[in-house]
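Our platform keeps sequence and structure together, in a single record for each protein. This encoding replaces a full spatial description with a residue-level series of whole-number codes. We quote a single record here, exactly as it is kept in our systems:
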Amino acid sequence: VQLQASGGGLVQAGGSLRLSCAASASISSMNPMRWYRQAPGKQRELVASVISSGNTNYEDYADSVKGRFTISREYAKNTVYLQMNSLKPEDTAVYYCYGMAGGRGYWGQGTQVTVSS
């Protein structure tokens, strides 16, 4: 399984970006799916996670992004999104998508998000 992340860029504080993570396989078989980020000199941290059970998706967020970021799946496109609103300079990082399938974890390449003050 390959994951392709995109959508990063440079944005002013208060702005929005939507990251996409396109999978080469059906995301119906990938559970959970997550977004992580890593800022320079810091450890990679979990930003958002979605777990599907039946017809219900359960979302979870880091405290630092709750109320501003939203993770979602689009099954028809085998894509997971991270909608990021009210961006802050401290959100600057490389963002990575992650998915688990068949007991194995898969990482996408990172996409850079830079928020200017």
